[in-house]
Amino acid sequence: MINKYGKIVLLGLAFGMMFPLLGVTRVVNMYPGSMMKIPTSSPVRSPYLFSTGFATEIHRFSDPFNTARGFYFSMDLTNRFTMGFSSVQSADTTALENILTSTFRPPIEFGLHIQYRAYVYNDIAFSIGIHDIVFKDDPANGLNLNPRDFSTFLSIGSEKILGEYALSTYMGFGTGGFSAPDTASVVVDTVTTGPNSGIFAGFLLKTPFLPKWGGLDFVGEFDGSGINVGLRIPLTSDYRLTVGFTHLENLPAFSDEPYGPTHPGLIIGLDMSVPRGPKRVPGIPTPGIERGPFPAPETAMMDSTMLAADFAVAALRDSIRINQLEMRNLMTQVASVQHKAFVLENSVKALSLEKAVAQRNMNRAMRHLSRSLRYFYSGDYREALQEVETSLDLNPNLALAYARRGSIYYKLGDVQRATINWNLALQMDPEYDDVRNILKALHENRLKTTSFRRE
C-alpha cells in the first residue's frame, strides 16, 4: 500500500501532466542522488543523513565568462520518501553578437524535488516523483511558480556488485526537463518549448580506486536531450569533487554557439554527504545531551568504535548468510549425487538380475535342446519339436534351436518350414557352416546324402 507521501506524489504527477510541460534549464547535480541530470532509484535508504553541495557549468571561457551555477540540499525523510531543494541561476542566453553589451541577468530559481520509492524487488527499485517545482525570482513578475516547469518521472534503478566494482543503472520515462528540447525555438527565461515527454538512462560505476574514501565513480547518462559524462573524485570520506561535460555530442560547438538548452558545458562541483550517526547504546552518554554541547574525547572515541563495530557485525552477518547459502548449495549437490548413486546402484542391480535371468534361461534352453536331440535320433520327431519350441520360448536368439527345428521339419516332410528355419539360423549366425552346407545341398538336390548329426 502507498502511504500518504506516495499519494501526495501521485496527485502531483496527475496535476503536472494536466499542463503542456516545458523543459527547464537545470544545472547538474541539483537533483537528489548521485547522477548528473537524471533521477535515481535505489532499493535501499541512503546511508547519509543529508547531502549538500554546489556546481558550476562553464559555457564560455572567453570574455565575457558565461556560467550557470547553483547549490542543492537533499535528504531521505523516510525509508521511501526523498526531498531536495536547489537554487539555480542559468547562464546568459543572449546571442553571441550581443553578449558583450548584454545587460540581461538570468532569474534565480528556487526548486523543490520530491520522489517516492514505490516498489522494491531484490536489487531493483521503482520510483516516481516530481522535479523542478521551480519558484522564479523574476524582476518583472517577482517570485512566481509556473506549473508548466514541472518535470514528472518514473524511474527504475538496479544495483549490482561486480567483483571489486559496483554498477548502478537507471532508466525511466519523464516529462518537462526530461524531454528533448526544440533547438529551433527561442530561449526565454531559460524555458524552451519542446516535446512533452521523453526517456532517460544512465549508469554509475563505482571503482576500487581510492578505496579509503569510498572509491572513484564514473558517471554517464542520457537526460532526454543529450549525453552527459562525469567523474566523481573522493577528496575525503565525506567530500567529493565532480568534473565532467554536459551535452558531449555538441562539444565541438562549445565557443561557436550562444547558450541554449543543448549547449555543452564544463562541470565543476563539490558535494558533502553527512553519514548517519551511530545508534544510541544504553549506558553510553550521547554527545550534546548528557555531556553538554561538545562530546568528550573518550565519548567521541567510543562512538567511533561502536560505529566500526556495527560495520564489523554487519559484515559478519553477511558472511554468515553467504556461508549458509553455500552450505545449502553443497547439501543440495550432495543430495543430487546420492540420488545419482542410488539410480546407478539400481541400474547395476537390474543389469545383474537380467544377466542372471538370461544365464538361467540359457541353461534351461540348452537342456531342452539336449533332450530334443535324443528324441530326434530315436525317431520321436513330435517330442523333439516340442522340446525345441520350449527352448526357443526360453531364449529366442539360439541359432542352434532354429537349425534343429529345420532338421525336424525336414524329417517330418515339411521342406518349406525346414528351409525357413535354416535361413533363420544362418541369419542369426552367418558363420554357421553346417546350415549353409545343408541349404546348398538342398538347392543342388543332394540333401539325402547330407548328415544332420553335427547340428
Give a concise summary.
The protein is an alpha+beta fold.
Describe this structure in words.
The protein has 455 residues and is α+β, with helices and mostly antiparallel strands. The chain folds into 2 domains: 4-276, Beta Barrel (Porin); 354-449, Alpha Horseshoe (Serine Threonine Protein Phosphatase 5, Tetratricopeptide repeat). 32% of the residues lie in helices and 30% in strands. It has 6 helices and 15 strands. It has helices spanning 4-16, 297-377, 381-394, 399-411, 415-428, 433-443, and strands at residues 23-24, 48-60, 66-76, 81-89, 108-121, 124-138, 142-145, 151-162, 165-175, 191-192, 197-206, 217-222, 227-234, 239-246, 265-275. It has a 12-stranded antiparallel β-barrel with strand order 2-3-4-5-6-8-9-11-12-13-14-15. Helix 2 (297-377) runs parallel beside helix 4, helix 3 packs antiparallel against helix 4 and helix 4 (399-411) runs antiparallel to helix 5. The termini are far apart. The model is unreliable at 5-25, 183-195, 279-300 and 449-455 (pLDDT under 50).
